[in-house]
Design goal:
The structure is a single chain. By secondary structure, the chain is an alpha/beta fold. The chain has a domain at 2-163: Rossmann fold, CATH 3.40.50.11890. The protein contains 15 helices and eight strands. It has a four-stranded parallel β-sheet, with helices on both faces. Strands 6-5-7-8 form a four-stranded parallel β-sheet, sandwiched between helices. Strand 1, helix 3 (56-59) and strand 2 form a beta-alpha-beta unit. Helix 2 (25-42) runs antiparallel to helix 10 (216-233). The longest helix has 24 residues, at 170-193. The radius of gyration is 21 Å and the shape is globular. The model has no long low-confidence stretch (mean pLDDT 91).
Length: 388
């Protein structure tokens, strides 16, 4: 099974070399950083497994590797190294992201983690996965329950400090994190001012950059994204087409689907819900309190706040249609969609919900085309032939 990981590394290397000759050098940088991390892990360097909202500011401080579940699964599935190999470990009801990660472990495609750090928020399935790995392989596990984030994060920091040496201090981490926030805010300012200036599926390929805040790499990456956007403004024209806000993920097995749709039909994807992160500044004096507040103010923590933030983006981008790509068997997002749909309806907005599995396959492009066609013909009086 080592051959599969080597295959992934080779595919990443090929993609990096190709991207360096395009206007997507930020993607090359992102893949290069991930490739180097995987190469070190394959070579035997220990790593800590993390669930999505475990603060990257903490992981940035320690001299070991950290892997986030969603990121490594995204790389593995999109590179096609896992096709036909995934199987459920608990029941078919658990999120396929977490089934896929266990498959990576149990088929020895990646080594087992040395330690696991997990949050109960927002994903119950991620917590189940971490508990499963702890039970099956006796891997030490620390779970942050959310009863007192500040106290639990401090404890998590000291647990890591007992096992690994520090590679940067709190002051340096705060500085890198705040630089990243400043850059992200500037990127968002441009993207809202120039809707569609960046391809949505390209942004969705790098939204896990959120798990690098606190590191120098996140700052360097965001500088490249910002430079790319500034260069594009010189030739940008405002889209004279149906503007769409995208919620949720995209199929990992068809991760250029939105760009393909834009080439074929009169529509522009102007922004992505998963890119709505990274606006919280930290201070050295209140570091753990700030990290606690950052979690509690994150996008999915309060549905009402999430709705207000989505409505703000809709207003600023003049989006006319919202499409939610709902990950099947997700334990926390689908139950909220009815509330969001009702809130949008009060504002005269239409939300189309597409139920699919971003990991296992099976989603057809025609399903997305039909959702756009239905809105375009009924609400915008577009010619039906424009969507063929």
């Amino acid at each position: 099974m080592q051959d599969m990981m080597n295959d992934l590394i080779k595919k990443m290397d090929l993609s990096i070399r190709m991207l360096l000759h395009t206007d997507k050098k930020y993607l090359a940088f992102y893949l290069s950083y991930q490739k180097q991390k995987l190469e070190r892990i394959i070579a035997g360097r220990p790593y800590v497994l993390c669930s999505y909202y475990f603060p990257s500011e903490l992981t940035s401080m320690f001299d070991t590797e950290f892997l986030y579940i969603e990121r490594i699964v995204g790389l593995a599935v999109s590179s096609n190294i896992m096709k036909g190999k995934e199987r459920p470990i608990f029941t078919n009801d658990i999120c396929s992201y977490h089934n896929a990660f266990v498959d990576l472990i149990e088929n020895n495609i990646i080594p087992k983690p040395q330690f696991i750090m997990a949050l109960s928020y927002p994903c119950h399935d991620a917590k189940m996965l971490c508990e499963y790995l702890h039970s099956r392989y006796n891997i030490p596990l620390y779970i942050i329950s959310g009863q007192n984030y500040e106290r639990e994060l401090k404890k998590g920091f000291h647990i890591l400090k007992e096992r690994y040496s520090l590679c940067q201090n709190i002051n340096e981490t705060v500085e890198f994190s705040n630089q990243a926030v400043t850059l992200k805010k500037e990127i968002d300012r441009y993207r809202l001012k120039y809707p569609g200036i960046m391809k949505s599926d390209e942004m969705l390929k790098i939204f896990t950059l959120e798990n690098d805040f606190g590191s120098r790499e996140a700052v360097d990456m965001l500088k490249l994204v910002l430079k790319t956007i500034k260069d594009k403004t010189l030739q940008h024209s405002y889209p004279d087409s149906l503007r769409i806000l995208w919620m949720g993920l995209i199929p990992l097995y068809d991760n250029s689907i939105l760009s393909h749709i834009e080439k074929c039909f009169p529509c522009t994807f102007v922004y992505e819900e998963m890119w709505m992160f990274g606006h919280y500044f930290l201070t050295e004096d209140n570091f753990f309190e700030n990290l606690s507040s950052k979690i509690r103010t994150s996008l999915f923590y309060h549905t009402r706040d999430r709705i207000e933030r989505l409505l703000t983006v809709v207003k600023e981008t003049k989006a006319e249609l919202i499409i939610n790509f709902s990950q099947r068997n997700c334990s926390f997002l689908p139950p909220k969609i009815k509330e969001i749909e009702a809130a949008f309806a009060k504002e005269g907005l239409v939300l189309k919900n597409l139920d699919a599995d971003v990991v296992r396959g099976g989603f057809e492009r025609e399903t997305l085309v039909e959702a756009i066609r239905d809105f375009g013909v009924k609400r915008k009086n577009y010619d039906n032939n424009a969507f063929r």
